[in-house]
């Protein structure tokens, strides 16, 4: 795979790892004292070298969740932060990657912060796509890094260790309630950046499912055939057992 680096500002970079079939973004964010790397991609490029070419500040590595396309280059770092609810998912996907696990896991949760020096990143728990998914709020810059929680595309509630539609709907409502703290969202795939009104589309689609007004249609994916509800610019792809309607 290849990579490209896109500056967001003088202290922020979006790094894309891609080939003709796949793409994932990870983000390097710096302050005056420290740097933070959100996710490490598929693991096919020298992420440590890319980071070193952009900053020499002490580095913290955080995983937004435990899927393989977000943790692939973790082996290039000594310590990685993760939500504890994704530890089982992380170890499952990590075992499928070619490099042995040498990194140490550390755990974080709702409201934890990383002070980078003039820049604060706050952890927002966001269960749904996985049980331990999280977003990072870039407090001073009013940006929300949403990983796979609300791309301008489908959210997948059909993979191993995913949450329920109710859990996902609660996450979206929580993010809507924080909307006075951010102006734009930066996801890990597809269109970037994304206006925070994308939350309203996900909220409405989840409500349609939970009320049973529209349950979607069968939808084949590389991981199996599931059900997809399409709505506006987005969709919710879910499997049996996660549509927990009352």
- Percent strand equals 25-35%
Number of domains: 1
CATH homologous group name: Ribonuclease Z/Hydroxyacylglutathione hydrolase-like
Radius of gyration: 17 Å
Low-pLDDT runs = none
Number of helices: 5
Strands, count? 17
Kindly state the percentage of residues in helix: 10-25%
Spell out the key features of this protein.
single chain; 246 residues; alpha+beta; Metallo-beta-lactamase, Chain A; 6-stranded mixed β-sheet; 5 helices
Q: Please, could you describe this protein's structure?
A:
- The chain has 246 residues and is an alpha+beta fold.
- It has one domain: Ribonuclease Z/Hydroxyacylglutathione hydrolase-like (Metallo-beta-lactamase, Chain A), CATH 3.60.15.10.
- It is built from 5 helices and 17 strands.
- The protein has helices at 47-54, 68-71, 87-95, 165-177, 198-211, and strands at residues 2-9, 12-18, 23-30, 35-38, 59-62, 79-82, 104-107, 113-115, 120-125, 134-138, 143-147, 154-157, 184-187, 194-195, 217-221, 224-231, 234-238.
- Strand 6 (79-82), helix 3 and strand 7 (104-107) form a beta-alpha-beta unit.
- Helix 4 runs antiparallel to helix 5 (198-211).
- The longest helix has 14 residues, at 198-211.
- The chain is globular and about 55 Å long.
How would you summarize this macromolecular structure in one to three sentences?
The chain is α+β, with helices and mostly antiparallel strands. 20% of the residues lie in helices and 35% in strands. The chain has a six-stranded mixed sheet, with no helix packed on it. It has a five-stranded mixed sheet with strand order 1-2-3-4-5, with no helix packed on it.
């Amino acid at each position: 795979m290849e990579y490209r680096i896109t500056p967001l500002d003088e202290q922020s970079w979006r790094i894309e790892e891609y080939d003709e079939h796949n793409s994932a973004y990870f983000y390097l964010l710096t302050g005056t004292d420290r740097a933070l790397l959100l996710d490490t991609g598929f693991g096919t490029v020298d992420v440590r070298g890319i980071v070193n070419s952009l900053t020499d500040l002490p580095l913290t590595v955080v995983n937004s969740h435990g899927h393989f396309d977000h943790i692939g280059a973790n082996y290039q770092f000594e310590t990685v932060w993760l939500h504890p609810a994704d530890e089982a998912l992380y170890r499952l996907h990590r075992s499928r990657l070619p490099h042995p696990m040498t990194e140490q896991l550390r755990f974080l949760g709702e409201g934890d912060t990383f002070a980078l020096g003039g820049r604060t990143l706050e952890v927002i728990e966001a269960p749904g796509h996985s049980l331990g998914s999280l977003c990072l709020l870039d407090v001073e810059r009013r940006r929300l890094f949403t990983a796979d929680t609300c791309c301008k595309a489908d959210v997948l509630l059909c993979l191993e260790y995913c949450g329920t539609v109710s859990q996902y709907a609660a996450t979206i409502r929580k993010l809507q309630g924080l909307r006075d703290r951010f102006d734009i969202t930066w996801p890990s795939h597809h269109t970037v950046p994304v206006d925070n009104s994308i939350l309203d589309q996900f909220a409405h689609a989840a409500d349609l499912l939970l009320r049973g007004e529209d349950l979607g249609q069968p939808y084949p994916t590389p991981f199996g055939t599931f059900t997809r509800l399409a709505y506006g610019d987005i969709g919710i792809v879910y499997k049996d057992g996660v549509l927990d309607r009352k």
